[in-house]
Write a structure and sequence with these properties.
The structure is a single chain. By secondary structure, the protein is mainly α. The protein has helices at about 1-5, 10-15, 25-45, 55-75, 85-105. It has one domain. The chain contains five helices and no strands. About 15% of the residues are buried.
Length: about 110
């Protein structure tokens, strides 16, 4: 988030402009790889929860997509500079499918590192 906050033009280029890049440019492929890396990180948490709620890799991909899309919207509307304000919400999105609503809600109360 700090990386995007430092330069809103860079954030716009890396998050928004990539969506309009031609398929041959490879930018969209790179974006998809980044979202998949986020999903891999989230999917690593699947083994940390009990087996009473079976989840698949798809759960991580959905959560990663939600995180990416939230960042995209914030960059598009010019509010990426206030990333620390919505960072807890991103953690909520990533945590909720794995640890449940209560644990995710607790994440909303955590103060981001500065």
């Amino acid at each position: 988030m700090r990386y995007f906050e430092e330069d809103s033009a860079r954030a716009r280029f890396l998050v928004v402009a990539v969506n309009g890049a031609g398929a041959g440019a490879g930018a969209q492929t790179r974006r998809d790889e980044i979202v998949q890396r986020i999903a891999e990180t989230l999917d690593g948490g699947r083994g940390e929860v009990d087996d009473s709620r079976p989840m698949s890799r798809c759960t991580a991909e959905i959560a990663a997509g939600a995180v990416y899309n939230t960042i995209l919207v914030k960059v598009e509307d010019g509010s990426i500079e206030r990333g620390e304000e919505f960072l807890p919400e991103l953690i909520y999105l990533a945590t909720m499918p794995y640890l449940g609503a209560r644990a995710a809600e607790d994440e909303l109360l955590v103060e981001p590192l500065r």
